[in-house]
């Protein structure tokens, strides 16, 4: 009987350790994926002329592979996992505006827009290797994706630098002054 209890504890302990190790590497792997995707897009965008076309092709296929991996992993990732695909909703976004608490829903909207646009740009580029009239569509999608990427970067900078500025101000301003400024702003 003691052996059975010991095995059960070991199995439970093993499951807990497996979950902890997966959770431990989830964010760094997501950052690595993000860097590969961003770097691949940048290289593909900058090497779109005839002289560097092989590099453009390689970077485009890296981007396409990164998108496919993200979609596959995101579909099977459990609820609450960072890799789970975002599911933005209009109702959730409107509700967030009422309370302004929790994660900003525009992160999910940008994620869906970027996964879709960059994925379509990469897929249309792969198709354009065989069907030449897809090249114009590919270029148009890549240009559109670039502007959405700029919007995403501006949004992230505004959100996180805004939080840092607010934290810096709350540390340096006397607490009564900070409350008075908040009331004046209303």
Walk me through the structure.
- The chain has helices at 2-46, 53-76, 90-99, 106-128, 134-172, 175-185.
- It has 186 residues and is an all-alpha fold.
- It starts with a helix and ends with a helix.
- The protein is built from 6 helices and no strands.
- It is globular and about 60 Å long.
Fill in the keyword field for this structure:
0% strand, 6 helices, 186 residues, mainly alpha
The percent range for strand residues is under 5%
The helix fraction, in percent, is over 70%
Structural class label: mainly alpha
The string of secondary-structure elements, in order, is HHHHHH
Q: What Rg is obtained from the alpha carbons, in whole angstroms?
A: 23 Å
Give the biggest beta sheet.
none
The average pLDDT is 83
Helical stretch tally: 6
End-to-end distance? 67 Å
Number of strands: 0
Uncertain segments: 1-9
Shape: globular
Give the helix/strand layout.
Blueprint: H1 2-46, H2 53-76, H3 90-99, H4 106-128, H5 134-172, H6 175-185
């Amino acid at each position: 009987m003691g052996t059975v209890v010991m095995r059960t504890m070991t199995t439970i302990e093993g499951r807990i350790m497996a979950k902890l190790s997966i959770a431990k590497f989830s964010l760094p792997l997501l950052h690595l994926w993000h860097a590969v995707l961003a770097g691949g897009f940048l290289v593909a965008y900058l090497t779109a002329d005839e002289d560097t076309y092989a590099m453009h092709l390689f970077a485009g296929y890296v981007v396409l592979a990164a998108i496919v991996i993200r979609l596959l992993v995101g579909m099977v990732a459990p609820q609450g996992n960072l890799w789970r695909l975002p599911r933005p909703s209009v109702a959730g976004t409107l509700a967030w505006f009422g309370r302004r608490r929790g994660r900003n829903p525009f992160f999910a909207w940008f994620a869906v827009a970027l996964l879709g646009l960059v994925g379509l740009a990469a897929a249309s580029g792969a198709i354009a290797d065989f069907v030449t009239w897809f090249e114009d569509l590919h270029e148009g999608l890549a240009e559109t994706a670039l502007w959405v990427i700029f919007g995403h970067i501006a949004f992230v900078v505004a959100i996180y630098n805004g939080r840092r500025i607010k934290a810096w101000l709350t540390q340096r301003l006397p607490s009564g002054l900070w409350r008075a400024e908040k009331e004046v702003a209303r």
